[in-house]
Amino acid sequence: MTGIEGVVPKYLQIAAHLRELIERGELAAGAEVPSERELAARWKVARPTAAKALNTLRQQGIVRSRRGSGTYVAEQSALLRESAPRYESSPPGLHSVRVLRAEVVEGPREVTAALGLPASSAVVVRKLLSEGNSGAARLVTCWYPGEFASAATLLLEPEPVPGDGSRYPEAVLGRGVAIVRESVGARLATEDERRHLALAPPAAVLVVHRIGLDAHGVALVYRESVHPPGRSTLHREYFTSSTAVFRR
Questions:
Q1: Model confidence over 10-35: pLDDT tens digits?
Q2: DSSP readout, 77-95?
Q3: Structure pTM?
Q4: Max Cα–Cα distance, the chain, nearest Å
Q5: Judging by DSSP bridges, how do beta strands 135-145 and 122-132 pair with one another?
Q6: HSE (CB half, 13 Å, CA atoms) of 179?
Q7: Is the distance from CB of 79 to CB of 64 less than 8 angstroms?
Q8: What is the signed CA dihedral for 16, 223, 219, 178, rounded to 10 degrees?
Q9: What angle separates helix 10-23 from helix 47-59, to the nearest 10 degrees?
């Protein structure tokens, strides 16, 4: 276990594992989820910890409890899932992620607008550089509402976080990304991007902007991924978070 994994509460690790099983289809809609007792024994934790993990998924709308029966994966009819092209799969040979920046700052106009915040609002910024055997793979910057800093404290750590991007704050805050608005474009790399991606000027880069919103349309994260030229980009359909339940 890495130092960062040790920092993440056990109940969040359990919840993330169950969610991954659900998203991969290993636990289908309507399937029974392991009980508190089973989770406690499997993960070697106290039952209240296992109960907290299940409650986290319950609050996110991923599972449902049936009185006197157990806990089950929410039916697909109760979930909002959106298929979309995905440009963020890890490139082949990816072996490390470096955190270049993790702090609370005054949000740039583009960022506060994307997050639906008043101009000059405080935001959490987290900038990551993914590197592979052949060099830099992509530069990713995530911005979150400033209020996330008090609860999702690991966002300000200068080390990679399990579930970096959206899953960690989702698990901590109990609010999941249900809808993704994504745009893709190309432009010349900035001086900072050229430096980190080891590009000679002038260099064009592929830029992917993504806004993640919860089931009520409230923005949770604004993400920019910058890909160097000459790297293949994977296109595939994928399901967004299983947490999307309309509660209006």
A1: 888 888 888 878 877 788 888 999 99
A2: GG-----EE---SPPTTEE
A3: 0.63
A4: 65
A5: antiparallel
A6: 10
A7: no
A8: -40
A9: 50
